[in-house]
Amino acid sequence: MIDLRSDTVTKPTPEMREIIARAEVGDDVYREDPTVNTLEEESARLLGKEAGLFIPSGTMGNLAAILTHCERGSEIILGDNTHIFLREVGGIAALGGIQSYILPNQQDGTLRLIDIQDAIRKDDIHDPPTRLITLENTHNRCGGAVLTKPYTREVGKLARENQLKFHLDGARIFNAAVALQVNPAELVEPVDSVMFCLSKGLGAPVGSVLCGESNFINRARKTRKMLGGGMRQAGVIAAAGLYALEKNLPLLQQDHSRAVKLFQGLGSIDGLILEADQPPSNMVYFSLSKEYPLNATQTAAKLKELGVLVDISGERRFRLVTHLSIDDQDVKTVVQAFKEVMS
Ligand SMILES: *Cc1c(COP(=O)(O)O)cnc(C)c1O
Question: Rounded to the nearest 10 degrees, how much is the dihedral formed by the CA atoms of 56, 57, 63, 69?
Answer without folding.
Answer: 70
